[in-house]
Amino acid sequence: MYSLLLAIVYVAFISLGLPDSLLGAGWPVMHEDLGVSLGLAGVLTMIIAGGTIVSSLASDRLTRRWGAGLVTAVSVGTTAVALLGFSVSPSFWALCLWAVPYGLGAGAVDAALNNYVALHYAARHMNWLHSFWGVGASISPFIMSYALSAGWGWSSAYRIVGITQVVLTVLLVVSLPLWGKVNRVPPQHGEPDADPDGEPVRQGHVPLAQVLRIPGVVLVLVAFFAYCALESTSILWAATYLVDDRGVSPASAAAFASMFLLGITGGRFLAGFFADRVGDTLLIRGGFATVGLGVVMIALPVPTDALALAGLVVAGLGCAPVYPAIIHSTPVNFGRENSQAVIGIQMAAAYSGSTLAPPAFGALSTWVGTGVLPAFLAVLVVLGLVMSERLNRLVARR
Asked: Residues 231-265: pLDDT tens digits?
């Protein structure tokens, strides 16, 4: 039963990543077909991000009332309907309409699944699960590419992924009886007791204002914001920096920019083999330190480009364990009874960082140039590391 539900959750994480790269892969064709400017992709991403933030903040109330399994199934179903809506949208404004349920579904399932895995499975599974998210995010551009090259159009790619989400929704509905039968991992470091069935102590909904007053929550939110800002800014601007400031050819820059994502995916897979022995604290500390090393390698003014290109890969490997470890450590740091509420606002902080940082750097680069990218990333690394270390000291004292 444990393994069966774990396999379903793995599939759910692949499905969670599938839609994330579709818009970027298809927009060069989509905007021409819809007759809108290239820059309007930002409007869609902002709407989706807004939906994810709202549903992440509501995830505690929803999950406590309906359970993680049902929230996940309904959220994936909502995302499936939105993707199928994308596939039949005749205009940009129709896409904006369907982006609302798309974002709401994505945020709720992300928060619910992450909290469920943090409570019920070991650290290695959290890393492997997020590695599978990377698999899904890597597959969707190929789906879009195949649909376009076959002459089916971008809408067919959305239809394929939407149908896949429908199949997953059915699988999740069938698996609902399993969700309450998997025992959680044992309590650690004085965590709250469990009831006889192994479920965490359940209290009422924890209001947002109350969650923010929990010691250390603001620290982890800032750390998570910094990490996701670092990741999203690197993904969007690394290739431009390599071309404009280091003189790397566009083809090589694009290849190594993709290596950053592959480094995250592969790094999470590798981290799963030693995550239980090393622990979340060391994974976060070592991850930020490794990213810092990669940023230094990118910034060093040496004649060869090899160091900067290798630095991008090193930064990706460093990013790999940070996100899963922050999520997995939440029940330990803040108590299992608070974990769903805390993870919900962590997801909101994550989406805020991913949404706000890339355009903020874009605005900054118009004044001082893209050469400031390593310094921008270094500030985020230091901010994330300092906040996480302050949280560690707070938890140790408690």
From this structure: 988 887 888 888 888 887 777 777 777 778 788 88
- Provide the CB-side half-sphere exposure for 216 (13 A, CA): 22
Total-model pTM: 0.77
Residue pointed to by tokens 């499975």 = 121
Distances in whole angstroms, Cα of residue 196 to Cα of each of 66, 80, 183, 192, 200: 20, 37, 10, 13, 10
Window from 83-92, 134-143, 281-290, 342-351 with minimum mean pLDDT: 134-143
Nearest to 293 by CA among 223, 161, 381: 381
Backbone angles phi, psi at 101, to 5 degrees: -65, -30
What single letter denotes the amino acid at residue 41? A
Q: What is the pLDDT of residues 54-113, one digit of tens each?
A: 888 887 788 878 888 898 899 999 999 999 999 999 999 999 999 999 999 888 877 778
Q: Which long-range contacts (CB under 8 A, 24 or more apart) does 84-93 make?
A: 84/158, 84/159, 84/162, 84/163, 84/166, 86/155, 86/158, 86/162, 87/155, 87/156, 87/158, 87/159, 87/162, 88/155, 89/155, 91/34, 92/34, 92/35, 92/36, 92/40
Contact 287, 329 (CB under 8 A): no
Closest residue by Cα to residue 384 from 200, 206, 219, 226: 226
> Of the candidates 219, 223, 231, 206, which has an alpha carbon nearest to the alpha carbon of residue 344?
206
Give 281-294 pLDDT, tens digit per residue.
Answer: 999 999 999 999 99
Contact yes or no for 285/389 (Cβ under 8 A)? yes
All domains of the chain, ordered by start, with CATH? 2-176 (1.20.1250.20), 208-397 (1.20.1250.20)
pLDDT at 2: 62
